[in-house]
Design brief:
458 residues, mainly beta, Immunoglobulin-like, 3 domains, seven-stranded mixed β-barrel, binds 2-acetamido-2-deoxy-beta-D-glucopyranose, TAP binding protein, immunoglobulin domain, Ig-like_dom_sf, Tapasin, Ig/MHC_CS
Length: 458
């Protein structure tokens, strides 16, 4: 019984997960309009294969209203983790022309000299991007739209590549794991020329930097031949996950980069190569390091009434990137008792670059002259940075206005000794007079010291 209810719960969970996935993705069909211009036309992809008939879309040309046949379940898998309340991904579609890969290390994929006839005809490449998904799929539309009940064109997702981490933000020094899944449905299953089982494929990961691509990793599982050596310690899990004789097949091309540094930030291009077909997605890798925040002087800063305290220096160190760093000065528990912006002159030092790529700077605050009411006020520097939560990180110092705090330990000991000496002196002299001279005068202490200030009547 317990097991049954558990099963039921799982089934219900799956049902809600299914309904959470978007059914129709609005898209743009983009094509070259000549003269370096692009023309955009509305399109839509119907992803879910329900029993109900597709919604009527008289606003779309039938060849741009596509019902996706996805035998590998790749699009379903891609949207499985898609947050329910997140906006639909941006979607663009364009014509695709099957071509052999140009890189020499991929020549083993296409030993025959010409593209198989089975690949003739129209191909579409659809790209979707959102903070939760980056996906590319090569679609093979049927030549004629299906007439009934809604004018819609059936299209098979032949090669689909996607990641659930399109914008990985990796703490500096940690390993980056960039997930990549793909799926392939052969157009001519059980072709006599083909051996059963998933075909060889090529996987490459590159980083774009200043308009130039750097090949980080190239692998061709199932093929012999030389591939360029991996760089920067990059490793990929490149394999088909399942071994059906005639497909469809799903695969994993997850990429691993050890101990990332700021110099490894950028756009990563992952490409899965099959004969004459390439599926490519982009990811934006960001490296983050939260700042250390320290304030000097600390924990107290002293000033006499009417004088300005020494300059406060907030050291914001070893962070990355510089973009998005903000330093605020706050006054906590001042005369009005609440948190407010601290007054005073503020400035920032130039950025200092460390050999590991991280950065430091110092923020300075020169407070105006203080009054005795400000005694006990706390000043804080608060640092905001993309690596920190919205609250940021702060350090604080308490203002002590001289003459308002109780006597310090040294003053106390001094007072005790003075009293002791004075008593002895009085006794020795047998002095009976009632007038007591101020201690400060007897001991030669400056009248500005707290003890003297309290007693001196003049
Ligand atoms: C791909 O492989 C990596 C490493 O083994 C693993 O962590 C990840 O879960 C795999 N992805 C999928 C979709 O199976």
């Amino acid at each position: 019984m317990k097991r049954l209810s558990l099963l039921l719960a799982v089934a219900l969970g799956l049902a809600t997960a299914v309904s959470a996935r978007p059914t129709v993705i609005e898209c743009w069909f983009v094509e070259d309009a000549g003269g370096g211009k692009l023309a955009k036309k509305p399109a839509a992809l119907l992803l879910r294969q329900g029993a109900e008939s597709p919604p009527l879309r008289p606003d779309l040309a039938p060849e741009r209203y596509l019902k996706i046949h996805d035998p590998a379940g790749a699009l379903q898998a891609a949207f499985r983790q898609y947050p329910r309340d997140a906006p639909a991904p941006r979607c663009e579609m364009s014509l695709y022309v099957p071509l052999p890969a140009s890189a020499k290390w991929l020549s083993g994929l296409t030993p025959e000299q010409s593209c198989p006839r089975a690949l003739d005809g129209t191909w579409l490449m659809v790209s979707m991007s959102s903070p939760f998904l980056s996906l590319s799929s090569l679609l093979r539309p049927q030549s004629e739209p299906q007439p009934e009940p809604a004018l819609i064109t059936m299209a098979t997702a032949v090669l689909t590549v996607f990641t659930h981490t399109p914008t990985p933000r990796i703490p500096m020094g940690q390993d980056a794991l960039l997930d990549l899944s793909f799926a392939y449905v052969p157009l001519t299953p059980k072709a006599p020329s083909l051996a059963p089982g998933p075909p060889p494929f090529g996987l490459e990961w590159r980083r774009q930097h200043l308009g130039k691509g750097h090949l980080l990793l190239a692998v061709t599982p199932g093929l012999n031949g030389q591939v360029p050596a991996a760089r920067e310690g990059a490793v990929a899990f490149a394999a088909w996950d399942d071994d059906e004789p005639w497909g469809p097949w799903t695969g994993n091309g997850t990429f691993w980069l050890p101990a990332v540094r700021p110099s490894q930030e950028g756009t990563y291009l992952a490409t899965v190569h099959l004969p004459y077909l390439q599926g490519q997605i982009t990811l934006e890798l960001a490296v983050l390091k939260p700042p250390k925040v320290a304030l000097t002087p600390a924990p107290l800063v002293w000033a006499a009434p009417g004088e300005a305290p020494p300059e406060l220096l907030c050291l914001v160190s070893h962070f990355y990137p510089s973009h998005g760093l903000e330093v605020e000065w706050e006054l906590r528990g001042g005369p009005e008792g609440r948190l407010q912006k601290a007054e005073g002159q503020r400035w920032l030092s130039a950025l200092r670059h460390h050999s590991d790529g991280s950065l430091s700077l110092s923020a300075h605050l020169q407070l105006p002259p203080v009054t005795s009411e400000q005694h006990g006020a706390r000043y804080a520097c608060r640092v905001h940075h993309p690596s920190l939560s919205a609250l940021g990180r702060s350090a604080e110092v308490t203002l002590q206005v001289a003459g308002l705090s109780g006597p310090s330990l040294e003053d106390g000991i001094g007072l005790f000794l003075s009293a002791f000496l004075l008593l002895g002196l009085l006794k020795a002299l047998g002095w009976a007079e009632n007038r007591v001279k101020p201690l400060s005068t007897i001991l030669g202490k400056p009248p500005s010291s707290p003890v003297a200030t309290v007693i001196t009547p003049q």
